[in-house]
């Protein structure tokens, strides 16, 4: 409502917010008895027609079932495509101020190329000649390699596979003579098959605290075939390891 003067004979003018239509006269006049004429104006929401689904797609409504009332400004709908087809565009639609719907998306067939190979790994799938949007492929790793990332990749609407995982390599401990703490227990190096631990596994090497004359376990971790041996660790000689083993940092009093 737009008002500049409220004396007898003056008029006020009405308008509606965007998305609404004025029903009734767009003005009222101040009468001699101090009342206004024609006070029956209403702002009603703009209506949109029943939305058309995209080809090979459907429209889903916010409420269960098909609405029995008209669609009005601000109403929202959802678009869906038939299985195997990619929805290109916005999956939601809105009734606009001009009584039209936002542009509907398209339902298209999207293909992906052959899934990428995985170094030190393999694909778990039935061989297909073509892969479509939504298809999934699972990966696994060869023995002693650990899968890093999602085991499943998916053909996306862009025609590209989601990021594949990696197979992380084990570590071969570069020490032949030592007693270590691994998997909750102390073991001699020759008890560890092939001196191998797997990606992300942890192992402790024993160092000697010279000031306190005690043993100290120092933790390190295997990360994709690489492991850093603690700087304080000293690999014993063959004589010390086999004959004088009770003097090793792992065998003396612990700090």
UniProtKB/TrEMBL annotation:
Q: Which UniProt keywords apply?
A: Disulfide bond, Glycoprotein, Heparin-binding, Repeat, Secreted, Signal, Sushi
Where, per UniProt, does this protein localize?
Answer: Secreted
Q: List the disulfide bonds.
A: 16-43, 112-155
User: Major place of localization?
Assistant: secreted
Secreted among keywords: yes
Instruction: Tell whether Hydrolase is among the UniProt keywords.
Output: no
Molecular-function GO term, any one: heparin binding
GO terms for CC? extracellular region
Tell me where in this chain the Sushi domain is found: 1-45, 46-109, 110-169
Superkingdom of source:
Eukaryota
Pfam families xrefs: Sushi, Sushi_2
Q: What does this protein do?
A: Binds to various kinds of negatively charged substances such as heparin, phospholipids, and dextran sulfate. May prevent activation of the intrinsic blood coagulation cascade by binding to phospholipids on the surface of damaged cells.
The protein's name in its UniProt record: Beta-2-glycoprotein 1
């Amino acid at each position: 409502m737009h008002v500049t003067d409220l004396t007898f004979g003056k008029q006020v003018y009405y308008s509606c917010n965007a998305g609404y239509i004025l029903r009734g006269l767009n003005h009222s006049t101040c009468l001699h008895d101090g009342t206004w004429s024609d006070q029956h104006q209403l702002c009603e929401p703009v209506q949109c027609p029943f939305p058309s689904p995209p080809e090979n797609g459907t429209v889903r409504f916010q409420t269960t079932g098909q609405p029995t009332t008209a669609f009005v400004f601000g109403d929202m709908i959802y678009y869906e495509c038939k299985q195997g087809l990619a929805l290109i565009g916005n999956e939601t639609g809105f009734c606009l101020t001009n009584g039209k719907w936002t542009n509907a998306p398209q339902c298209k067939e999207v293909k992906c190329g052959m899934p990428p190979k995985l170094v030190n790994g393999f694909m778990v799938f039935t061989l297909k000649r073509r892969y479509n949007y939504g298809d999934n492929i699972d990966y696994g790793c060869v023995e002693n390699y650990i899968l890093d990332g999602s085991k499943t990749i998916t053909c996306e609407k862009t025609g590209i596979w989601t990021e594949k995982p990696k197979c992380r390599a084990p570590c071969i401990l570069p020490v032949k003579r030592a007693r270590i703490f691994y998997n909750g227990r102390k073991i001699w190096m020759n008890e560890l098959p092939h001196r191998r631990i797997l990606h992300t596994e942890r192992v402790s090497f024993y160092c000697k605290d010279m000031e306190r004359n005690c043993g100290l376990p120092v933790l390190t971790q295997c990360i994709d075939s690489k492991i850093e041996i603690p700087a304080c660790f000293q690999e014993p000689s063959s004589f010390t390891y086999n004959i004088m083993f009770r003097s090793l940092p792992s065998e003396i009093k612990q700090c």
